[in-house]
Specification:
Structural class: alpha+beta
Number of strands: 23
CATH architecture of the largest domain: 2-Layer Sandwich
Largest sheet: 8 strands, mixed
CATH topology of the largest domain: formyl-coa transferase, domain 3
CATH superfamily of the largest domain: MutL, C-terminal domain, dimerisation subdomain
Helix content: 25-40%
Number of domains: 3
Strand order of the largest sheet: 5-4-3-6-2-1-7-8
C-alpha cells in the first residue's frame, strides 16, 4: 500500500484512543481540568457506567466565550507555552487533548462562565464539530456533559465491560482524586444514587474515612519525611490493619495519582517482617518533588511516571515509613464493652512486650504468661525466630558473625542453579557465618555454619538457602531472605519442652528485639487476652 497522510477524522480517533480508553478516562480528564481551574467542589454524574451519559460540574474559574471556542480545538491548552515548560509540569491536564479527544468519540456539551462574563457560554459538539453556540445562565465554573461515548468507535465500545464494572472504575478513580485533594468536595452520583461524597475539609483522614471507613481512618498513622530531594506526606496503616491485595496503596506525585512499581515496592519493603506473606498494608502517600526530577509525560493517560533517581525515591520512602512504624506503637488491645462483641477474643499484642511472669507451657509449643493487662500466649518457635533473625543481621552488620566450625567438612552436591547462587553470594554467606568451598564438579565442602544452625538438618537447610538466594533477584533482599531461613531452621521447634528458666529467658530476649510482635515472616509471636475481656467472658462486667 502506498504511504499517505490520514484524514483528520481518522487521526482524531487514533489520538482519542490513546487518551480515552473507557468512561473513567473521560471522568479523569475532566476532573483534572476542574482541579487545574481551581475548583473546590466537583460533582460527577454517570448513567449506564458512563457510556450513555456522564457529566462533570465544577465551581472553578471557568472560561470566557472566546476561550471556550479554543478549548475544543486540538492541542489547545493554558498549561504550557513552550518546550521549557515540559520540564516543569505543575498542572494535571497539560496535554491539551481532553476536550477534542472526547468530542471526537462522543457528543459533548460545554457550559462555562468566567468571572468577567455576564452569562455562560454553551457549545454542543457532534462528530468533532460545533453545532450549537448560545448563551446560557450559569454560576462561575464549568459543566461538561458527554453522551453516547464511542458512538462512532465500535471497536472500542465492544471491549467495554458491563455497566457495573465501568461504574466501578469510575468510583475507584474518583476515590483516588478524593484522597489526593481532601480540600475539594467530591460527589459522585451513579444511576441516580450517591456513591461517594466527601466533606472537602482538607483533612486526609476525613477522606480516608469516606473511602475505607471510619475505623480504618482512626487507626492510620501519620507519615511525614523530608530530605533535599522530596517531601513525603500521608497516612499508612499499622501492621494490624492489612489486606490481601495491593489495591489499597495510593500514590500521588505532586498530587497526581500515579502507578509506579518503585513506589509500591518501597512500601512493601518498609513492612517486611511485619506482615504475613500475601498480606499488604494500606497507604496514601503524596510525594512532592521538583518537576524536573520526574517525567509525567511517559504515558498518554498520565498514569505512569519515571523518576530521574529511582534509588533516592525508594530509599526515602522506606526510611520514612520505617520511622513511622517504629515511632508509633499500637495501643494495647483493650476493646471497650460496647465494641467487644464485634472484636475477636484473642488480640495481637502491641509493639512492646510488657513485664511478664511465666505460667507454663501449652502443648509444648506455647508459653503462657501473666502481665498487668491480662494473659499472654507466646508462640515459642515464632518468638525464637525473631530473636535469632535480629541477632544474625546485627552480627553481620557488625562484621562479627557467630560461627560454629565443623569437626568434619560436610560434602554437598549442588545443582547448576545452586552453584550460581553460591558463586554470586559467597561474600554474603561468609558474612552470615558460612564457610563453603568448591570441591570439584558440582561438589562443595561446608566447613563452618552460623551457630544458630547447630543441631539443624544442615544439608537441607543450606540447599534451601541457596535455592532462595537464586530466586531472589533483588540483591538488597538476599541477606534478609537468608537470615529468615537460618532463624527458621535454627529456632526452637513446636513440641519442644522448655523448663521455667528457658521460658523466662525466651520472653526476656524477645522483649529486647526491635519487632517483638511478629516473626521474620510476619506471623504473630504472641496473642493477648486482656483483663477486661476476661471479665466480659466470665460475665463480670460490673
Amino acid at each position: 500500500m502506498p504511504i499517505k497522510v490520514l484524514p483528520p477524522e481518522v487521526t482524531s480517533k487514533i489520538a482519542a484512543g490513546e487518551v480515552i480508553e473507557r468512561p473513567a478516562s473521560v471522568v479523569k480528564e475532566l476532573i483534572e481540568n476542574s482541579l487545574d481551574a481551581g475548583a473546590n467542589e466537583i460533582n460527577i454524574e454517570v448513567n449506564n457506567g458512563g457510556v450513555s451519559y456522564l457529566r462533570v460540574s465544577d465551581n472553578g474559574c471557568g472560561l470566557s466565550a472566546a476561550e471556550a471556542e479554543i478549548a475544543i480545538k486540538r492541542h489547545a491548552t493554558s498549561k504550557i507555552t513552550g518546550l521549557k515548560d515540559l520540564e516543569h509540569i505543575n498542572t494535571l491536564g497539560f496535554r491539551g487533548e481532553a476536550l477534542p479527544s472526547i468530542a471526537s468519540v462522543a457528543e459533548v456539551e460545554l457550559l462555562t462562565r468566567d468571572p468577567g462574563s455576564s452569562a455562560g457560554s454553551y457549545l454542543r459538539i457532534e462528530n468533532g464539530r460545533t453545532t450549537v453556540r448560545e448563551k446560557k445562565s450559569r454560576p462561575q465554573g464549568t459543566t461538561v456533559t458527554v453522551r453516547r461515548l464511542f458512538q462512532n468507535f465500535p471497536a472500542r465500545l465492544k471491549f467495554l465491560k458491563s455497566a457495573a464494572t465501568e461504574s466501578g472504575h469510575i468510583a475507584a478513580l474518583v476515590s483516588q482524586f478524593a484522597l489526593a485533594y481532601p480540600e475539594v468536595r467530591f460527589e459522585l452520583v451513579s444511576d441516580d444514587r450517591t456513591t461517594l461524597s466527601t466533606s472537602g475539609d482538607a483533612e486526609l483522614r476525613s477522606a480516608v474515612s469516606v473511602i475505607y471507613g471510619l475505623d480504618i481512618a482512626r487507626k492510620m498513622l501519620e507519615v511525614e519525611g523530608i530530605n533535599n530531594l522530596l517531601y513525603i506526606q500521608g497516612l499508612a496503616s499499622p501492621p494490624s490493619v492489612q489486606r490481601s491485595s495491593r489495591s489499597y496503596l495510593s500514590f500521588f506525585v505532586n498530587r497526581r495519582y500515579v502507578r509506579n512499581s518503585i513506589l509500591a515496592k518501597a512500601v512493601e519493603t518498609a513492612y517486611e517482617g511485619l506482615l504475613m506473606t500475601g498480606r499488604h498494608p494500606l497507604a496514601v502517600i503524596n510525594i512532592a518533588i521538583p518537576p524536573e526530577e520526574v517525567d509525567v509525560n511517559v504515558h498518554p493517560t498520565k498514569l505512569e511516571v519515571k523518576f530521574r533517581n529511582n534509588n533516592d525515591v525508594f530509599t526515602s520512602i522506606v526510611k520514612t515509613l520505617r520511622d513511622t512504624l517504629a515511632k508509633s506503637p499500637l495501643p494495647s488491645a483493650r476493646p471497650d464493652l460496647e465494641e467487644a462483641s464485634a472484636r475477636p477474643l484473642w488480640e495481637p499484642h502491641a509493639t512492646e512486650v510488657p513485664p511478664l511472669r511465666t505460667l507454663g507451657q501449652l502443648s509444648s509449643s506455647y508459653i503462657l504468661a501473666e502481665g498487668e493487662e491480662g494473659l499472654y500466649l507466646i508462640d515459642q518457635h515464632a518468638a525464637h525466630e525473631r530473636i535469632l533473625f535480629e541477632k544474625i543481621l546485627a552480627r553481620r552488620k557488625a562484621g562479627q558473625p557467630d560461627v560454629q566450625g565443623m569437626l568434619e567438612p560436610l560434602s554437598l552436591e549442588l545443582t547448576p542453579v545452586q552453584i550460581q547462587s553460591l558463586t554470586g553470594c559467597t561474600g554474603l554467606l561468609s558474612e552470615l557465618g558460612f564457610t563453603i568451598e568448591p570441591f570439584g564438579g558440582n561438589t562443595c565442602l561446608v566447613r563452618a555454619v552460623p551457630s544458630a544452625l547447630s543441631g539443624a538438618a544442615l544439608a537441607d537447610t543450606i540447599l534451601e538457602i541457596l535455592d532462595a538466594l537464586g530466586i531472589e533477584k533483588e540483591p538488597s533482599k538476599r541477606d534478609v531472605k537468608a537470615a529468615q531461613l537460618i532463624a527458621c531452621h535454627g529456632a526452637i521447634k513446636a513440641g519442644q519442652k522448655l523448663d521455667a528458666g528457658e521460658q523466662t529467658e525466651l520472653i526476656r530476649q524477645l522483649a529486647g528485639t526491635a519487632q517483638p510482635r511478629t516473626c521474620p515472616h510476619g506471623r504473630p509471636t504472641m496473642l493477648h487476652l486482656s483483663s477486661q475481656q476476661l471479665k466480659r467472658e466470665f460475665g463480670r462486667t460490673q
